[in-house]
Amino acid sequence: xxxxxxxxxxxxxxxxxxxxxxxxLREGYGMRDLRADALAGLTVAIVALPLSMAIAIAxxxxxxxxxxxxxxxxxxxxxxxxxxxxIGGPAGAFIVLVASTVQxxxxxxxxxxxxxxxxxxxAIGFLQLGTYIKFIPYPVxxxxxxxxxxxxxxxxxxxxxxxxxxVPEPGPLAEKLPVLWDALPTxxxxxxxxxxxxxxxxxxxxxxxxxxxxxxIAVALTSVVAMVLGLDTATIGSKFGGIPSGxxxxxxxEITLAKLQAVLPSAIAFALLGSIESLLSAVVADGMTGRRHxxxxxxxxxxxxxxxxxxxxxxxxxxxIARTATNVRAGARSPIAGMLHAVFLLLFILVAAPLxxxxxxxxLAGVLAIVAWNMVEKHAFATLLRASRGDAAVLLITFGLxxxxxxxxxxxxxxxxxxxxxxxxxxxxxxVETHAPFVGQDQSDATLPVLEGPAASxxxxxxxxxxxxxxxxxxxxxxxxxxxxxxTHRALIVDFGAVPFLDSTAAHTIEGLxxxxxxxxxxxxxxGTTHQIREDLFLHGLKPPMVHYANRIEDAVRKLHxxxxxxx
Length: 568
Fold this sequence. Notes:
The protein is mainly alpha-helical and about 575 residues long. It is built from 24 helices and 7 strands. Strand 5, helix 22 and strand 6 form a beta-alpha-beta unit. The longest helix has about 35 residues.
């Protein structure tokens, strides 16, 4: 029986910032690895091509700027980052912030804010503050992600319907909707048909041919139809004049003290959202592969990538969850896959840039409609609404503030409400669960329960004990330990005997652990759970046979051995 705690030995400072690329090359890298990475990189580039242009257009930038961001930023994120599989580029989550920055400060202001955000991200990484980014409560991340999705969809209504507006399109949703409503009589049936066909093709290919690049195929087919039939609809060529056949020369935007002060709030917002988005993406890659990323190294790489993107006329760079997941599923083995994805995108603009002129804006609007729909964690949203009034309030307030106020304000208020909710829960729990204190006292080894008999020497079973409140502040560090399930372990036992309560972030952490254990064929037992904790876990789908419950560790081991004898 192997016992584990959540304490980890300190990592040397230099190792924290060693790119995963160096680690991979030290381990040994051969032609077989290169072939796998090249195929994965090509697959991701095919996905990133239409997406990068669509996100840039929705952000108030040009499609070329989206490609510059994916090429320059994507290459540096992979080359310098702390994740083996992270794919960097423009992200849908930034559309609202980038568009408002362009509107207030112009394109030069956007470049300066992007460079400043890169410096802030690098500073956060070097000061080793990346761990604190993980302290965002789960309802806050679900709420602002859903809010961003709503705003992205609303930003595409004009292009989706082919509307002609009599006034400039407002940014805020409450002001935008009346303007769009008044313009409904100008809707273009051809444009609506192209956007609808794009969505149908993407969804149809996802069901019938999930391995095919649905977004690229849908955009290519609708572009061919629009070109051959000479359809009356706006295209990249008619609105932007196409995209250049090469990268621009790097240049510094105009820098003055007044300009720095003006764009600093945008830069801070870019850095905050970029750190959250990139680390969430790295965590997703870890969950899919069993690898571990270095968060502070990842933030430094994101910082360098944003500085470079701003110098080359790009927009904000961050780790992108969908493209990173595509990279993993395509069989990537190292950061070289992400670097090659950037190279393939560069080859596209060098060789096939003129073809982009024929892409209808309606097709890209259809792509972003799919992106917005996929961004909403619908199951998690519904679960949090049922979980507790506190979690539901944090979720809905964050969601509402994101849509009608400001993303940064939504995150700050959501975090503050989550902290107040934690204090309230702790005050209630202390009175009821006096046997499980918030901070456990030190104990000698002799006071810890020791299993007797053959189970004590069973190296195939690993036991973790969690002590104290399991909430959003502790979920990241505890989750990083729980994720390390060795292939040689056939069972994992997590003991909650000293846990007074858990929140939705912690329950989400255990849910991720359960899915990972199931993929690896590891049986998961949860012991010592109170009735309330078990109810909270049930709400997140943690029920038998996905997980097994027992009163004590000894009971779990006994049950495991009985089940093995029964199937042996």
